[in-house]
Amino acid sequence: MLTSLYIKNYALIDELNVSFNNGLSIITGETGAGKSILLGGLSLVLGKRADLSQVKTADQKCIIEAVFDISNYELQALFQTLDLDYEVHTIIRREILPSGKSRAFINDTPVNLESLASLSSYLIDIHSQHQTQQLTQDDYQFNVIDALADNKEYLQEFSKRLLEYKKLQKDLDELKVSKAELIKEYDYNLFLSNELNEINLEKINLEELEAQYEELNNVEVIGEKLSSAKSILSSESLGVSDQINTVKQELSKITSFGKTYETLRERITSIGIEIDDILTELDDLEENLSSDPEALERVSNTLQIINNLFQKHSVKEIEDLKEIKNDLQSKINNTESLDASIQLKEEAILKQNEKLNEIAIKIHKKRKKVIPVFVSKLEAILSELGMPNAKFKVELETLAKFTKKGKDNLQFLFMANKGSSFNELKKSASGGELSRIMLAIKSILAEYIQLPSIMFDEIDTGVSGEISNKMGEIMKKMSCKMQVFTITHLPQIAAKGDAHYKVFKTDIDNTTHTQLKKLEEEERILEIAQMLGGLNVTDSALAHAKQLLN
């Protein structure tokens, strides 16, 4: 409930500080006294965008501050979501600076207008002609029926599962798109992969292969050079081997003359041994050397394939080809495994669909059960409000698809007079009828859920007599369970309030100011008497005012 409201430097208000209690609070005042200014200031607290033109004195800050007792609203989770400190007595403050900049605070924490509006929608409901039009909107009609049906928990579970369902569908669509794209590349990737698999990259040593090719391709030259090398080393008289033996013999003749000569002989002996080994290896190489055109062609083809692959894939190393082969295999595997992934998603969607249908059926049944109760209560109240022939029908139709409200289509149909036919509410009800219907619905809702504080802005426009008296009774009954404000011009309604506030203007130093005052008992009698008979109060008007108050 709203416990206090402070307004400074706003429109015609210099400074105003007023406290409120629970129950039914009446606000009266002459036309043009500034009741709309009061509502405008309160709207700023609820998240309406600020306008510098609303500031009374342009070089001073405008402040609107409201204090709410939220102990009965169970808003701890919302405060946590908005990252705010929860306080039973929550303070909302709006400031409009001389620069035109606007700031908002909840319990001294700066917030944006979105967060402010999220919270304020739970705190106070200003019921104006504009809001009456909400009654014709689908979301509001669903909210009314679901409040009576106590569908809150089912709807929360349904909403959560619907988000999961939509995500699964999105994932499935993406998988199908990926599959379509991969299928286009699948054959080509498979061809490239097979081409790389055929060459058996794991067993290829490029250096050895190139060396083998050079050897096979130059057999004749190698044989010729091997023979020449042998001739140089082993020919009689002029061969290197014979020459080394001759040197060794000469050095042997002088070894007894010193250690140096002995060492030289040993060294030349070692060279002779190495030369003999080389001659033996040359013999082996020459003996095993043979021409193999088939092997040469096979190696040549392998090298050609590898070079072609290097060129095709723009790489230079066997390791790069191996990496490309693995990547291609991964793409192929992904394409082949997508069907399994798609099947899993489809199965998950099917299960979620079944669960959503189960919850939707429960929601539908509870709605269907409560609709006759709602219609009966609504028609009874409307009869009291001067609409005895008004008939209501709520059509509930099951849809083939899911919506955020379940699987139903809901429509409020209205018939104001006998002999007419049911039609959509927005087409068949006048503005005055919509106001009374909205009052009736709000009074019914108050029996089922904790509504925010509500302010009726001249909801009694166009009614009088017994009907206005019934409207007052309905608002009085609502105020037993919630805080109700009503701005009214009717004394029958004003007399039913637990508290009475008057909006009035005063002229100070040639400047008009709007003020709000809580009326004491005698002041209240006088105000209601003036509402009954005008400014010139008669004894009969005073007596009538006292009678209404009693």
TrEMBL record:
Source domain of life: Bacteria
GO cellular component: bacterial nucleoid
Keywords: ATP-binding, Coiled coil, DNA damage, DNA repair, Nucleotide-binding
Keyword Hydrolase among UniProt keywords: no
Gene3D superfamilies found in the cross-reference section: P-loop containing nucleotide triphosphate hydrolases
Any single GO BP term: DNA repair
Residues in coiled coil: 165-226
A Pfam entry, by short name: SMC_N
UniProt key word Nucleotide-binding: yes
Stretches assigned to the RecF/RecN/SMC N-terminal domain: 2-507
Alphabetical list of CDD domains matching this protein: ABC_RecN
Sample GO molecular function, one term: ATP binding
Function (record text): May be involved in recombinational repair of damaged DNA.
The family this protein is said to belong to: Belongs to the RecN family.
Protein name: DNA repair protein RecN
Species of the source: Winogradskyella endarachnes
Gene for this chain: recN
